[in-house]
């Protein structure tokens, strides 16, 4: 149960930079999740095939205004985020957890564990800020 099968390395601070606030919720962009999982469009396809597993509080499509605002706040490179036909889908902590039941690869499982730990760490920091 506690054995590590591969050498996948995910830096928590890198994950924290991929978590954004939209509509008052911490979320991750579909493109960022796809990159972490090492897949292209599988994330959105999985959601479409299993729409009943992703209610609005798990995943939702952001508006053009929210997307523009989000992109203007990002300090990191925007390479790979352009050229979209529609606004991205974002996933809350619960949506990311649900992805693990839809994407069944070992990489997806490992990535999900680290992402959930990061969401939890951010929640704890909010409750108990370090001075």
Number of strands: 4
Contiguous runs where pLDDT drops below 50 for at least 5 residues: none
- Count of DSSP-assigned helices: 6
State mean pLDDT (0 to 100 scale): 81
Give the strand order, joined by hyphens, for the main sheet: 1-2-4-3
Distance between the termini: 36 Å
Oligomer: single chain
Structural class: alpha+beta
Rg measurement, Å: 15 Å
Helical content stands at 40-55%
Task: Walk me through what this model shows.
By secondary structure, this protein is of the alpha+beta class. The chain is built from six helices and four strands. The protein has helices spanning about 10-15, 30-35, 40-50, 65-75, 95-100, 105-125, and strands at about 20, 25-30, 60, 90. A four-stranded antiparallel β-sheet has the order 1-2-4-3. A hairpin with a 2-residue loop joins strand 1 and strand 2. It is globular. The termini are far apart. About 25% of the residues are buried. The model has no long low-confidence stretch (mean pLDDT about 80).
List keywords for this structure.
131 residues, alpha+beta, four-stranded antiparallel sheet, 11% strand
In short:
With 131 residues, the protein is of the alpha+beta class. It has helices at 12-17, 30-37, 42-49, 64-73, 93-102, 106-127; strands at residues 19-22, 25-29, 59-61, 89-91. The protein has one domain (12-127).
């Amino acid at each position: 149960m506690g054995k590590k099968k591969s050498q996948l390395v995910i830096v928590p601070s890198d994950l924290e930079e991929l978590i954004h606030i939209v509509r008052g919720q911490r979320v991750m962009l579909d493109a960022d999740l796809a990159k972490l999982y090492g897949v292209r469009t599988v994330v959105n396809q999985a959601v479409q095939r299993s729409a009943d597993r992703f209610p609005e509080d798990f995943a939702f499509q952001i508006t053009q205004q929210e997307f523009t605002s989000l992109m203007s706040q990002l300090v990191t490179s925007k390479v790979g985020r352009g050229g979209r036909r529609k606004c991205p889908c974002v996933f809350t902590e619960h949506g990311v957890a649900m992805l693990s039941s839809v994407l069944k690869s070992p990489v997806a499982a490992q990535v999900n564990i680290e992402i959930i730990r990061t969401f939890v760490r951010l929640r704890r920091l909010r409750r108990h800020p370090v001075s």
